[in-house]
Structures are given as C-alpha cells and as structure tokens.
Amino acid sequence: MIENILPNGVASAELLAYPDDLKPHPAEEHLIAKSVDKRRRDFIGARYCARQALEQLGEPAVAIGKGERGMPLFPRGIVGSLTHCDGYRAAALAHKLRFRSVGIDAEPHGALPEGVLDSVSLPQEREWLGAASTGLHLDRLLFCAKEATYKAWFPLTLRWLGFEDAHISFTVDELSDDAGSGTFHSALLIPGQTTDGGVPLTSFDGRWVIGDGLILTAIVHG
C-alpha cells in the first residue's frame, strides 16, 4: 500500500507477515539487546524494510543506527522514514539530492482511545472531524498525519514539534465505508529554521490512504 502514496524516486518496502527467521543486522543488535519481544520485532522488521529500500536505490544494505529521539540514522546522502504498527512495518527512502525529507506513519484503522483526540488536535481540526460524515476513523487519520509531519520535520530541525504546532487539513479523492484516499496539508505554526541552512519550513504536503484495516500517511518534501 505504501508505494501508492509515494512519488517516483522514493523507494519503499513493507512487511505484513513477520518471518520467523528474521534477525537484526549484527551492528544493530546492541540497540535492542534489552528490548521486549514486540519492540524487537518492530525494530528489526522496519529496518529490514529499510535495507530493501536501500538496495532499490542502488545503495549497500547497511545497518541503520538510532539518533536523537530515536531518529533512524540512514547512510550519508539518504533521507527516509520508518513506521510500524500491529501487523505492519514499512520504510520509505530517497536520495537527499532529490528530496529534502520523508515522513511516513502507519496506524490501525480504529478510533483513537477515549480522551486522546483533544490532546492531539486543534479546535479547527475537531470542527472538521465533527462535520465529516463517514464510517472511517478520521480521528486516527488526523493522528497519523501529525506523526508523519513530525517525522518529516525533526531530521531537518532537530527540534520538537507538538501536536498543537501543526494545523492539518484534508482533501478526499474517494471515500467508502471502509476505504479512502486523498491529500493533506500540514501548516506549521512555529518557526521552521533548519539545521542545514536551507529554506525555513512553513508547511508540508502529503498523501493518505485507508484500506485493509490500515491507515497510511506519507510526506515527501522536496
């Protein structure tokens, strides 16, 4: 599914069924040596996908380290993002000469836990959710888009971005009771100076899709 919301030039891989014999890269084992089984499987699965994407880009399938706030450390000249949720792991990578950052997120297609929406949304966003008439869990879609926004933001700024720091609006391509797709726009509400001295960030544009029990969002910022 993830490739359907990514532009040309972005390599991706996803893993639904988890192979019993899947092992971490030897240089990554120390990062999860004390982790519980679920954390290990998510970490190993997402980085397995990342190495598949690296090979698609013509790059060596090397270890993927972990940086500040858990940010994956891709090889020099590569930008990308990892995601995982129950039954799903994925990666999307690209050459930095072509794209500035990538942010993806996956969530189960279900309602947010009670009380969470108010802490992750702005009043304007809740107004849109209240007016939307659909059987889809758009509250979870909003959360998923906020997560992708943060993942696109952090590698460029190395600064926190709270849920209240981005206003997200959506457009819809198609909609049914159990599936849908469209675009979203993340307007950034705090200064977007970047560590690379490039043009400050003011917004991101992305795509979303819902199907097969999953919500996927992707931002590829050029």
Explained architecture:
- This protein has a five-stranded antiparallel β-sheet. It has a three-stranded antiparallel β-sheet with strand order 1-5-4, covered by helices on one side.
- The two termini are 22 Å apart.
- It contains four helices and ten strands.
- It is an alpha+beta fold and 222 residues long.
Give the helices and strands as they follow along the chain.
Answer: EHEEEEEHHHEEEE
Query: Can you count the beta strands?
Result: 10
Cα radius of gyration in angstroms: 17 Å
Q: Tell me, what's the shape?
A: globular
- List the uncertain runs: none
Helix content: 10-25%
Structural class: alpha+beta
What oligomeric state do the depicted chains represent? single chain
Termini separation: 22 Å
- Helix count from the secondary structure assignment: 4
Proportion in β-strands: 25-35%
Quick description:
With 222 residues, the chain is of the alpha+beta class. It has helices spanning 37-56, 117-120, 123-131, 138-157; strands at 11-15, 65-66, 72-73, 78-85, 88-95, 101-108, 166-175, 180-188, 203-211, 214-221.
